[in-house]
Write a structure and sequence with these properties.
The chain is of the alpha+beta class and about 600 residues long. Helices cover about 45% and strands about 15% of the residues. The chain has helices at about 1-10, 15-25, 30-45, 95-100, 110-115, 135-150, 165-175, 180-200, 215-225, 270-280, 340-345, 395-400, 405-420, 425-440, 445-465, 470-480, 480-510, 520-530, 540-560, 575-595, and strands at about 60, 65-70, 120, 125-135, 205-215, 230-240, 245, 260-265, 285, 300-310, 315-320, 325-330, 355-360, 375-390, 440, 565-570. The strands form five sheets. Strands 9, 10, 11, 12, 13 and 14 form a six-stranded antiparallel beta sheet that branches. A four-stranded antiparallel beta sheet has the order 3-4-6-5, sandwiched between helices. Strand 3 (about 120) and strand 4 (about 125-135) form a beta hairpin. Helix 15 crosses helix 17 and helix 17 packs across helix 19. The longest helix has about 30 residues, at about 480-510. The protein is elongated, with a radius of gyration of 37 Å.
Length: about 600
């Protein structure tokens, strides 16, 4: 961070510093993205005057960038403000940060604030603001800078810390190439005092990024005269506002969005199985009449003793582990419930009868010593019951959950089944909704946000090159201001579109009161930690914010989909016949070689 601050503050040739920093980035992969983004930022900073940092109280987190409430504290603490145009000298110390945060103008503060600023809107959510500092304010700022510098500078004939006339200080600094340093520092102090209150309090705007003086500071310093008023014109990006269109006949502009997308057909087979499984859970049993033969759909209580099967699949071998056998085991006679052959071997059996049943264990069995093997079971039927599976009607729905009807059950199951396949089509749906959303809202995206996001993506790309085995020296060659600008131009439209969508989602969540339950964030956080398997995931609070933002966006788009007019085009899954034929041919050739061997 200190290295990056040097780059920002002094605007030096950053190549040497960046190469040092990139070594850390390539080693510390998990925390490198932000660091690399900062250093890349340093490569393209020109004539930067000062920066606004994020505030604590937020109302929007589009792109993970926080927008603060108007009542938040200052966004430009001294440590986060850089003035690369300042002339520096080993014998000169800039105004102490903490003191500079105190009231600068003393009794003239009200007078300074009374001079209204002038604001002109610019494209891409930028503004040009003209600040006027009255003569009393320029004199106070200049005198304060001189008083601070006189405490540190050494001038023959004056003891250190003595009060030195400003003209003497300027002459001493001029000899070292910094004649206008006092004036530039005074301008800096004035801007720190005037800019943010003007934007936030006069114009109700949230500044972001790095404001720039329109006129070079050297030019302002030459015309700066303590005791005379001065005009400073600054260009600054501000947080954008969403403007919604008025849609005739719609309560809210984002209701009834019209969108079309293509997806795979609804999985009817899975839905039918889910309905069947639900009904099975509420099956009613009654004791079977004496002498009744077991049929499909019935249930029974049995004792089972198992043995490994011989080569012929029928001869009894070694006893199976206790876990594979057991007493008083309930078996429901239904297809696909148990190992192959068990249910079929019990059909027609009666209570008190012992049958020898030949089975095959599933290949996917956890116990790999039994997976895919054949076995023989002696099964004694102890009890038999007739099962009646109810239809899913309103009566059953009331048993499942009071107030629910049959249609409600079907809708819930249909939604649950569809969500299982959502990964295949949800992106297409959200993309279509985003396009429709863009037609009813407008927001200008500041270049600051575009640049920040491009830097992060650029950093991630460099890190990926490293993980793919690219040599560090080759990566260094790619990291240039020119390459970054080309990358930014390519990515700009996608970044703008994504930001608009993110900001709209945040605004809709606020308007509709959509909130992410804390337990969902906790569950996702634990899942991410488990998947990381002990690896450092960085700042947990930042990770929680990203998880919350992701879940929130999904909830908002589900809300939009429920209130939209969606035209869904279903298409059958297409198979690559040529690929299938090629695979089949390769399989046959491989089997033929195995037979010859």
């Amino acid at each position: 961070i200190q290295l990056t601050n040097l780059i920002f503050h002094h605007n030096q040739d950053i190549t040497h510093y960046f190469f040092i920093r990139v070594e850390l980035i390539l080693i510390m992969f998990r925390i490198s993205n932000v660091a690399l983004a900062l250093v890349v930022a340093g490569m393209s900073v020109k004539n930067t005057s000062f920066a606004f940092s994020p505030m604590a109280s937020t109302t929007s987190t589009a792109f993970g960038i926080s927008r603060a409430s108007s009542s938040s504290p200052s966004t430009a603490p001294c440590d986060n403000v850089s003035f690369p145009f300042l002339v520096t000298n080993n014998d000169v110390t800039t105004t102490n940060c903490k003191k500079r945060q105190m009231q600068l103008f003393m009794a003239t503060a009200d007078e300074a604030a009374a001079v209204p600023s002038k604001l002109v809107r610019k494209p891409e959510s930028a503004v040009e603001i003209t600040l006027t500092a009255p003569g009393t304010a320029t004199k106070a700022a200049y005198d304060k800078v001189c008083a601070e510098v006189s405490k540190t500078i050494s001038i023959p004939g004056f003891r250190k810390g003595a009060k030195i006339p400003p003209a003497v200080i300027e002459n001493a600094m001029s000899a070292k190439g910094g004649r206008n340093s006092l004036r530039t520092q005074a301008i800096q102090a004035l801007l720190n005092q005037l800019l943010e209150p003007a934007l936030k309090e006069e114009h109700n705007l949230e500044p972001i990024g790095q404001p720039k003086l329109v006129a070079p500071v050297e030019e302002l310093a030459q015309s700066f005269k303590p005791g005379e008023s001065i005009e400073m014109v600054v260009v600054c990006d501000v947080w954008p506002d969403i403007s919604w269109s008025t849609v005739e006949g719609k309560e809210k502009p984002y209701y009834g969005l019209k969108a079309s997308y293509t997806r795979n057909p609804f999985n009817q087979a899975r839905f039918d199985q889910a309905m069947k499984d639900l009904a099975e859970r509420y099956a009613v049993t009654e004791a079977a009449p004496e002498g009744k033969e077991l049929a499909m759909g019935d249930s029974c209580i049995v004792d089972m003793t198992g043995f490994m099967a011989g080569e012929d699949g029928k001869t009894k071998g070694d006893p199976l582990p206790d876990a594979a056998s057991g007493d008083d085991v309930e078996i429901v006679l239904g297809e696909g419930r148990y190992m192959n052959g068990l249910v079929e071997g019990l059909v027609g059996a009666k209570v008190g009868e012992t049958r020898t049943v030949y089975v095959s264990f599933p290949n996917g069995l956890r116990d790999k010593t039994l997976a895919g093997k054949k076995a023989v079971f002696d099964v004694t039927v102890k009890e038999a019951s007739i099962r009646t599976v109810p239809e899913i009607d309103d009566e059953l729905a009331q048993r499942i959950r009071p107030g629910l009807d049959a249609e409600g059950i079907k809708n819930e199951l249909r939604k649950a089944v569809d969500e299982q396949d959502s990964g295949e089509w949800i992106e297409a749906r959200n993309k279509a909704l985003s396009k429709a959303l863009a037609e009813v809202m407008d927001v200008e995206v500041p270049d600051t946000l575009v640049t920040n996001q491009a830097r992060e993506k650029y950093a991630q790309m460099m890190a990926e090159f490293r993980t793919q085995g690219m040599d560090d020296e080759e990566i260094k060659k790619l990291i240039t201001p020119e390459n970054f600008q080309k990358y930014k131009n390519i990515q700009k439209q996608d970044i703008v579109d994504d930001f608009k969508t993110s900001m709209a989602a945040d605004e809709i969540a606020r308007l509709e009161g959509i909130e992410v339950p804390a337990y969902q964030i906790d569950e996702q956080l634990e899942a991410v930690k488990k998947e990381a398997n002990g690896e450092d995931l960085g700042d947990e609070n930042m990770l929680r914010t990203k998880i919350e933002s992701t879940i929130m966006r999904r909830m908002v788009f589900d809300f939009l989909a429920e209130n939209a007019e969606l035209d869904v085009q279903y298409e059958e899954e297409k198979f690559d016949e040529e690929l299938l034929e090629k695979l089949a041919k390769e399989t046959m050739e491989r089997e033929a070689k195995d037979l010859k061997a």
